Each structure stands twice: as structure tokens, then as C-alpha cells.
Amino acid sequence: MKSEKDKMLSSELYDPLDPQLCAERRRARLLIKTLNDSRDDQPEERRRIIQELFKITNEEVWIEPPFFCDYGTNITLGNKVFFNFNCVVLDVAEVLIGSNVMFGPAVQIYTATHPLSASDRRTGLELAKPIEIGSDVWVGGGALILPGVQIGAGSVIGAGSVVTKSIPEGVLAVGNPCRIIREVKD
The domain containing residue 87 runs over which residues? Predict the structure, then answer.
């Protein structure tokens, strides 16, 4: 029988009140509180917290507090990833972020979703869909990236965009809903 965590990571309905999931969220929130309370003159402390919170492939990750996420352990970061102030990552499902990716302030990445049926929502069960962001992507401030979206390498997402569908490589996409405007030349 699958654990609630296994169901969550498999994009199946799961119970968010499961004791293991509650404990893992609590762990992340304590680390995030420490990160958000840290000072600019404490780069080693910030690096330690970031390494404990995320799956990272190196130490070149910059996060401007405040920052918020559900678990941290469901986020995999490439090299040279930058989160500006006030970003939120609801990492109920896996969030894969490539290298050389920049997030403007107040970017929100949501893997979490809920059943459409009111009777199904009343059960309290939730579900999530993974998000993947390729290398060399720039996401402008205030953009929302919704469950199940993939953003191709080298693309730019305009500030304030709501990304409801996957975006291919090498394009500028903006708006609500986010639409491709043109190719981006390197």
C-alpha cells in the first residue's frame, strides 16, 4: 500500500494531514524561518540552510528572504539559481529548476491543486502536478506558474504572467493567460 507521501509525489489524491507530511512541512517551515530571519552578513548560515532545505547540485544558489515553500526536499535546483524577494514555491510535487535561472520578486510556483468537484474537495484530499523549468530561464516579477507546467530552456516569462500551459524553449511569453509573443535569440 502506498504511503500518503508516495501518493502525493505520484500526482494522486493524498491526505495532507498525514503525520509524516505534517512533520516534513514543519521541518521545512523551521528552516525557512531561520533563513528568513538571517541577515545579509551571514552568507555561510544562509548557505547551510539552503543546502539542508533543497536538493542542490552546488552551492551557487541565491535566495533573497523572505522565501516560502512547503517541503524544500521536492525542489531540485541547478547551478546559479536566483530567487528575488518574496517568492513562494508550493512544492507538493516535484519542482525541477535548471541552471542559470532567475526569478523576479514575488514569483509563485504552484504544484498544489484540488479536485474540481465540491464533493471530492469536501473529503480534504489534495493532489499536485510537477513543474519543470529549464536552464537559462528568466521569470519576471509577480508571475504565477501553475501545476503541471513546463517552461523550456532559454525562455523568458514576462512580469505578472499567469502560466497555465507549458511554454517551449527560446520564447518570450507574457500575459494572463501567458501567451508566446516571439522567439528569443541568443
Answer: 4-183
- Per the annotation, the verdict on 114 as an active-site residue is yes
Question: Which residue ranges of the chain lie beneath pLDDT 70?
Answer: 57-59
* Structure confidence by residue, pLDDT tens digits, 50-94: 999 987 766 689 999 999 999 999 999 999 999 999 999 999 999
Q: Give the count of domains, the chain.
A: 1
Q: In angstroms, rounded to a whole number, what is the distance separating the alpha carbons of residues 8 and 103?
A: 26
Position 56 scores a pLDDT of: 74
Q: How far apart are CA 111 and CA 10, in angstroms?
A: 12
CA proximity to 101, closest of 46, 147, 62:
62
Residue 185 confidence (pLDDT): 85
Domain containing residue 166: CATH number: 2.160.10.10
Among 27, 47, 114, 179, the active-site one is: 114
Distance CA 34, CA 27 (A): 11
98/134 Cα distance (integer angstroms): 5
